[in-house]
Amino acid sequence: TLSLSLSLSLYTHIYIYIHIMAFSYNGFSMVLLVTLMVSRAMVATAGNFNQDFDLTWGDHRAKIFNGGQLLSLSLDKISGSGFRSKKEYLFGRIDMQLKLVAGNSAGTVTAYYLSSQGPTHDEIDFEFLGNLTGDPYILHTNVFTQGKGNREQQFYLWFDPTRNFHTYSIVWNPQQIIFLVDNTPIRVFKNAERIGVPFPKNQPMRIYSSLWNADDWATRGGLIKTDWTKAPFTAYYRNFNAQTCAGSCTSTTPNSLPPGAWQTQELDPYGRRRLRWVQRNFMIYNYCTDLKRFPQGIPPECRRSRSV
């Protein structure tokens, strides 16, 4: 598969995906499919970590470099580290590029999430569960509403998240929450209030991230422990962008999407196909299909989401 990106103007890119499937026809190899997709995209100028975030714990283990353009979190045997946003957000699109802990990352968790505070808090989670060298990371997602979570979906990634930076995004509007990886949707949590399922809509949330030791559960249920001879473990962050609406639509970056674009964002047919591709090939756990966990019946939002 070959992907090319050609810039046409400030806001428009052409993405050419050439899928080549070799098959024999009179002795020749044939190109089966060429797909051309034109999409609107923003020209992103990254936010500044010095201006947008506070380093909240870990002392020197959390660092900001390059005039606020790069941030790193580290974990050693004494402590992990973390940061949080200065601002709170009520709906928006949040993008962050991460490069995860390389090598033997078993036992470590890199968490990147939105959360409010208190016993009835709302939360939207990305968590990256480390693994032995050569074994894939597990991307763990969850949604908490009014203090209740237990809505886990887990995925393998279709690339090595430790070799390069990749973009992890949350689109949160009154209709739904969309989790995206490199702009590919992996999960949709729709507003199902009409059937009695709470939806995060009233509590502003901050952005949090942390790198910490969770070898009691993170890798193979705690069977694989953290190898402290490989410490410190370090993850890197860059190109933060937040498009939000608080009174009037604002963004941390100039020249971004037109105001309000995320507010009604839904998956188009191509996005729905990509979502199905991810969930068919890379999903390894879905609470909606865990009948042993819910012997009285799956949660109501699961029945509704079957149409996605």
From TrEMBL:
Contains at least one intrachain disulfide bond essential for its enzymatic activity. Gene3D superfamilies: 2.60.120.200. SUPFAM superfamilies: Concanavalin A-like lectins/glucanases. It is an enzyme of class 2 (transferase). It is found in: Secreted, Cell wall; Secreted, Extracellular space, Apoplast. GO terms for cellular component: apoplast. The keyword Glycosyltransferase applies. Its EC number is 2.4.1.207. Residues 43-237 form the GH16 domain. Pfam families: Glyco_hydro_16 (PF00722), XET_C (PF06955). GO terms for molecular function: hydrolase activity, hydrolyzing O-glycosyl compounds; xyloglucan:xyloglucosyl transferase activity. The active site is at residues 123, 127. The chain crosses the membrane at residues 14-38. GO terms for biological process: cell wall biogenesis; cell wall organization; xyloglucan metabolic process. Glycans are attached at residue 131. Belongs to the glycosyl hydrolase 16 family. Catalyzes xyloglucan endohydrolysis (XEH) and/or endotransglycosylation (XET). Cleaves and religates xyloglucan polymers, an essential constituent of the primary cell wall, and thereby participates in cell wall construction of growing tissues. This is Xyloglucan endotransglucosylase/hydrolase. It comes from Davidia involucrata.
